């Protein structure tokens, strides 16, 4: 009888161990899931003068407390999925990100001629451009999850030009990262710039000349601006946008996605904001 009793106890222990292991794994998996970002994306409208701007704000709902805010300024095509995806990726990193609308009413260009017109309307009237950008910045700054003392910006192509011009004009930005930005700007640096600047361009970008680079970096050097200019070999214009290949082919434009450089430049951006904030 004793042997049967011990046998029963031994079997019970084995059953408990077997049943307990999956429960432990489940708890571990649950903890991992709880620690992973829970990105929430929300449509947001704000005004610049009489114009309604349609943006998109993203944040990690699992985080508590205020955190830095980062503006995302779109390419010359307009407020698109590329900008929204970047906002969500920034939210995964712990920021609150606002993909802005610089054209108003969420306008999108279907053709390069339209994109040229829309972007020209913005950059050709810097007072209006500044009003639109400032409205977006204040919308982000006033968000309940944002530390209003920590605001940065990233921009692509046209958007990169926008944030560079804004930094040159004295916008209250801690740091900016410009991806494949045009460097012929409506506002060039003439006074001391408080904003930290990182420019990540493609070495094979035919839309940016060596003269453009020299003019800008020389001005920075003369003013003692804190900046870094990175030129990626093998990368051309719009290298961060997965849609660049099809757009380039459709409209015979020198656009091409470069997955490796896209990843490298994003990692460099992450390091930049980690050090800044």
UniProtKB/TrEMBL annotation:
GO terms for molecular function: hydrolase activity. The keyword Hydrolase applies. It comes from the Bacteria. InterPro entries: AB_hydrolase_fold, Dienelactn_hydro, FrsA_esterase. The keyword Hydrolase applies. Residues 1-17 form the signal peptide. Keywords: Hydrolase, Signal. Residues 53-275 form the Dienelactone hydrolase domain. SUPFAM superfamilies: alpha/beta-Hydrolases (SSF53474). Pfam families: DLH. PROSITE patterns: PROKAR_LIPOPROTEIN. This is Dienelactone hydrolase.
């Amino acid at each position: 009888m004793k042997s049967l009793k011990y046998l029963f106890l031994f079997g019970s222990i084995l059953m408990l161990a077997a049943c307990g292991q999956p429960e432990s794994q489940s708890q571990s998996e649950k903890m991992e899931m709880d620690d992973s970002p829970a990105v929430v994306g929300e449509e947001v409208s704000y005004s610049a003068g009489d114009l309604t701007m349609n943006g998109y704000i993203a944040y990690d709902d699992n985080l508590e407390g205020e955190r830095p805010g980062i503006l995302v300024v779109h390419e010359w095509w307009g407020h698109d999925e590329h900008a929204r995806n970047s906002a969500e990726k920034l939210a995964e990193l712990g920021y609150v990100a606002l993909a802005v609308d610089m054209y108003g009413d969420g306008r999108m260009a279907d053709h390069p001629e339209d994109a040229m017109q829309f972007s020209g309307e913005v950059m050709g009237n810097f007072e209006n451009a500044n009003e639109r950008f400032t409205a977006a910045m204040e919308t982000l700054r006033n968000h309940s999850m944002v530390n209003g003392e920590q605001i940065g910006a990233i921009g692509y192509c046209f958007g990169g030009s926008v944030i560079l011009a804004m930094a040159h004009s004295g916008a209250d930005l801690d740091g900016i990262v410009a991806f494949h930005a045009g460097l012929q700007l409506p506002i060039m640096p003439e006074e001391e710039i408080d904003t930290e600047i990182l420019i990540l361009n493609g070495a094979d970008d035919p839309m940016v000349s060596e003269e453009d680079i020299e003019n800008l970096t020389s001005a920075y050097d003369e003013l003692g601006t804190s900046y870094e200019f990175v030129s990626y070999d093998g990368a051309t214009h719009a290298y961060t946008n997965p849609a660049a290949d099809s757009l380039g082919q459709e409209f015979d434009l020198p656009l091409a996605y470069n997955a490796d450089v896209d990843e490298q430049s994003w990692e460099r951006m992450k390091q930049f904001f980690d050090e800044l904030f």
